[in-house]
Amino acid sequence: MLTFIGLGLWDEKDITVKGLEAIKNADFVYLECYTGVLGVPVSKLKRFYEKDIILASRTMVEQEAEEILDKAVDHSVVFLVVGDPFAATTHTDLLLRAVERNIACHVIHNASVFTAISSTGLQLYKFGKTTSLVIPEENWNPETAYNVIKQNKENGLHSLVLLDIKIDFDRTYEATK
């Protein structure tokens, strides 16, 4: 069984009751730590959930997912995500791979930036396409964010712009020790 659990937006206490129960009953707990930022160190999650947590890098989730999926065949595995589990396409890909292998899957949703944006007072139905503002690199500086914002403005819609956070997995891992 593979259970995708949204952690909410900030700390260890944003978890839902269902999410906490699933974590406590899990054999293995993975934390995806590259699409969102926790407001607390992973050590606080470990203490509050009373579980060891395996940090899952982008490489592990996107290219080496077999480790997670192999365990989910015979064990209860949870996959923790800051915000809601399916705000990022990477997580959907992991779900589809699990389904292809006939691994039972369960999803426990939580608040995400997509729901929290309503606290600005802007109406959700007036948002256009969401875009990401990526950190430019040498020989790569996409204009996608600009084009999406421009199109939304022309259509009289608000724009939700997600910032590329470029988390350094090795530094994140070291900080959790």
Draw up the topology in text.
Blueprint: E1 2-6, H1 17-24, E2 28-32, H2 42-49, E3 54-56, H3 58-63, H4 66-74, E4 77-81, H5 89-100, E5 105-108, H6 113-116, E6 131-133, H7 144-154, E7 161-163, H8 169-175
Brief summary:
The chain has eight helices and seven strands. Helices cover about 35% and strands about 15% of the residues. It has two domains: about 110 residues, Cobalt-precorrin-4 Transmethylase, domain 1; about 50 residues, no CATH class.
Can you describe this structure?
The chain has 177 residues and is α/β, with parallel strands linked by helices. The model is unreliable at 169-177 (pLDDT under 50). It is globular and about 50 Å long. The strands form 2 sheets. The protein has a 5-stranded parallel beta sheet with strand order 3-2-4-1-5, sandwiched between helices. A two-stranded parallel sheet has the order 6-7. The chain folds into 2 domains: 2-112, Cobalt-precorrin-4 Transmethylase, domain 1 (3-Layer(aba) Sandwich), CATH 3.40.1010; 114-163, no CATH class. It has helices spanning 17-24, 42-49, 58-63, 66-74, 89-100, 113-116, 144-154, 169-175, and strands at 2-6, 28-32, 54-56, 77-81, 105-108, 131-133, 161-163.
